[in-house]
Amino acid sequence: MRTGEGESCLERENSCCFTGHRPDKLPWRDQESDPRCQALKERLAEALARAYQAGYRHFICGMARGSDLYFAEAVLALREQHAEVTLECARPCETQADSWPQRERQRYYGILERCNYETLVQHHYDRACMTRRNRYMVDHASRLITVYNGVPKGGTAQTLAYALRQGLETDILAVEE
For 33-89, how does the pLDDT look when each residue is reduced to its tens digit (9 = 90+)? Predict the structure, then answer.
């Protein structure tokens, strides 16, 4: 289910999705004041600027903790500069953030309140809902930005591999430079 106003920006050729690692796979974990995290956030903003310059206006985020939330916040910052930018939050299930720490839940719901579109892939959690969400994002985009540590297993690696098989342009950001 997708909610929001206007559908003109939602063509696949104008859409860019994101996948990246959760805090447990980032060297700074959840310490976002770490200079390495700050540097990654700057590189994410630069990747978004490149996508915008290439004509992308619609950005889809899977709303996981860590890199996904960094990406969503960077899209919202880009939207402040360019009103035609839209953010779609693709949620795998209704309970995605229920077990998160309170601060992260507040951040999550704050982003949802500011997004242009919200897509709920399915109502209830099951083992495959994250994969369905990832495939939804790739199937509705023509470009993928990813924060990837190079390890060939896990959801980020699977989403990147699927995006490459589907022919998406990719912008791969290393966790650390």
Answer: 999 999 999 999 999 999 999 999 999 999 999 999 999 999 999 999 999 999 999
Give CA–CA dist 138/70, Å, rounded: 19
pLDDT of res. 10: 76
d(CA 104, CA 84): 27
Ramachandran quadrant class, 66 (left: phi over 0; alpha: psi -120 to 50; beta: rest): left
Q: Nearest-CA neighbor of 103 among 30, 19, 152, 27?
A: 30
| Tokens encoding 105 | 């839940």
129-143 burial, b for 16+ CB within 10 Å, e for fewer?
bbeebbbbbbebbbb
pTM of this prediction exceeds 0.85: yes
Maximal C-alpha separation, the chain: 40
Statement: residue 158 has pLDDT above 70: yes
Which SS3 state, helix, strand or coil, does residue 49 take? Answer: helix
Q: Which residue has the tokens 């999550």?
A: 108
